[in-house]
Fold these 2 entries.
Entry 1:
Amino acid sequence: MLLNYSHTAPASLLSKGDSLNSDEIGELFGLSFVILSATLFIVFPFFAFIYSMLFARLHQSKAIKSLLAREANIMHQLGGDNLHTLSKPIPDRKINESGLVIANITVAPSWWQLFLGGIRSIFGGNIVSFDKVLAYGRSEVMQRLREQAIGEGWDEVLNVRVETSMVMNKIKGGKQNKMGTLEFLAYGTGIR
Amino acid sequence: MEQMMTSNIETIPGFTITKSLGVVSGSTVRAKHIGKDILAGLKNIIGGELKAYTELLTEARTEALGRMIMDASQRGANAVVNVRFATSSVAGGAAELFAYGTGVIIVEG
């Protein structure tokens, strides 16, 4: 029995060198996973940044174009704007019904715009890249309010207010994460 | 009960306010679940509108408004005038939406 045992032991040691056992495979897999995920974490932001640089402008200009077209269309249909900031209706206007109209949008600058804005804020002055995003968001929310009012059957909207707030920003240790998500809210009283 | 009338001007056109019942308010705090948060983060790369957040905030604001209306009806108001909204960013990725106004009793004429 002793003999038998001593014969089998070296054989098993030898075979260990040739093929991997389950422990070693697991270790190798774990190591490759760590390397892969580390590369992904380094490489992904880089490619995302490049992607943002190349395609953000295209994507945003498409949205702006469609906004301008819708705006022109509505202006043409109504022969003027249906939003007013007057807090009271014009005295001789007959009003049968009224109600609240609300529209909102959330926008964020792209990574490339954030980067440009970051550079620009060193020297100060007009930050063109943020300007564009904010102007788009504000016009878009006004346009949505117009469409919402028309959809709900209001002739005009009185006392329109537009509000801006930063939302969904993760706060880490008292310092805001620079994601720059902005919400625009427009509301008013619809009359007919 | 008939639908509560709301406006963000000082009166409801065509009605007269007979009694003011004070400030009525409603608020809600919302956060997005992590999956959509990550997707919105990816969308953030190219910027522009983040639809997931827009939807979330619309939903939340409707709820805040609903709570305000419930508050008003509990006080016996039949309209809310001068409605205002306030938004603030509280702890990590959550937003508080607040709606307030003055609960009033109105009569036609």
Entry 2:
Amino acid sequence: MRTIRSVSSPRSGQLKIIFILLGVNILIMAVLTYLSPTFMTYGNISAVLTRMSELGMLAIAETVVLISGGFDISIGAVMALSGAVLGTLHVVGVPFSLAIAIALLAGVAVGFINAVLVVNLKLTPFIVTLATMSIVRSVVYALLKGHVLTELPEKFLNLYYVYVFKLPLLFVILVATAVIMAVLLKRTILGRRIYAMGGNERTAYISGVFVKRIRYLVYCLSGFICALAGLLFTVRIRAVIPDAGLNAPLEVITAVLIGGTTIYGGKGSILGSLLGIFAMYLLLNGFSLLGLNPFWEVIILGIILIFVIGQEGIVRSFRASLSRRRL
Amino acid sequence: MNGETSRLGPLSSLRRLFQVREAPILIYIIIMIAVFSVTINGFFSMKNFEIISRQITTIGIVSIGMTLVILTSGFDLSVGAILSFAINIGGQGIVLGWPIWIVYPFMLILGVILGWINGFLITRLAVPALIITLGTMNIYRGITMVITKGVYITPIPSVYQVIGNGYIPFVFFAAVLGFFIYVTLTTRFGRNIFAIGGAEQSALYSGVPVRRYKMIVYIISGFLSALSGLILVGKSGFVQPQAGLGYELNAIAAVVIGGTSIFGGSGSVLGTFLGSVMLGIILAGLTMLAVNPYWQGLITGILIVLAITLDSIRYLRR
């Protein structure tokens, strides 16, 4: 694939957001180090990094979909699906590597269905993925019959203890995926087209972008990454649970939007989303270290979400009124 | 056009019946009742219809509020969270031994306040309602969990269960339904809701107080969620922090199955009622056929997709 050099306009704004997020992360870390002696230990930090791996993956998937001008709230359900498929197939006696392949394919299949509904039937992505979320979750419950499944090969589960350069493997997988996707988005023509399509689908189409084909690719990719996230999650908690990722849509969408991706499409970055997820997990870690009720997390997330989005809305409407343009 | 239809005679009136938005779904419902009555023993019985009527009321009432919101091309994902907040935080009054005539209004007022917050944020920040209510949904649920610490309120005095007896929930549903059918079809407020959903800018320019009406719509949605909560408490006999989980999905399902367009501006409250009846009948039928309840989400999801596909076809044709 040919590569392109410079990545133009959206950069400047993005850089600012990323610096702000870095600052926020450092600030949270400083406060937590001050408040809790156990925070700045190798064990705690690597636990945070491991824990953020699966939601980080979901955030990558959501970022790509949002940049392309779509929306996907089936991410959490797809994550649960891949774990459920893996566990069920393993119990039935399917070879484990094949089970993994099928689990990943299941994610791609859901992405494909989403794409068919969004592209060919021209349905609103939000409602479509709401419906597929309900469908997929119901399949997950039916596969697991509502039970938690723990019979998984030790070898697979022990990936949890593998460290690469003192970093947990799960986190390394997250970083690798992030780098691949970031390069795809920022350094390839395909990536430019995804941005272009999200910015203005009509214009992109007229300038020769195969909008439909790329949209298919984006949703399938999202399904694949979410399925991978499901595998990571299974390794991390050493079990397959039907309720996996139940809160993921909120957490992931919040983190992604904090990271500078917009719900209107055409703008955003993987790095920003990951920094958003990292900040979230730092906060969560802080709550548990300080012994606060974990439900404060959802409250704070909700407030942050509204604040971030609201700010953007204010800026947008301000700009719109300046240029006397109705959006 | 008129002459042509009249020439077709009796067939034309039948055809015109089909052109009514709610007609197809009514026919599906009749077919479904017929099929289930033949295949399932005891489906066609007063007992069963009473059960179904009780099942559909709580989500049905929420769906009516959701219909108004979607008609203005908005969205309210926080309905289930408002329901839970209203009965749990209001339920603290039960714990404290307040009389029912204070607790009930208190719960309803909580619903109104939360709905007002939604409406305020949505109209002032000019942000998609979807994202705002995704946020407030979690804020409301989070606050509920923090305050209740996940503890049920049980037992509750039997006066609170009166509202959940027999057909009483359905009577409430019917009253709310009748009121909002009247409001949407005959009042200026109703007409303006359709106008806002159809073309917000034009509505604004022609003097419709868009912001105020949007606020009112979210307040109604919050109020109806709380009302539905009261009935839920009456039916179940306890107050549960997880109450109303997944109501947003089912309410949206009832609304879109009932033929209301998710683009706003077209649809009806009656359609939503039929949508929730249809969902209720399907779920009851499948339960009696001993289909695993886990598949309910699948059926709801497929129905949503079918309904919005039809809606989209209708929308593109216009």
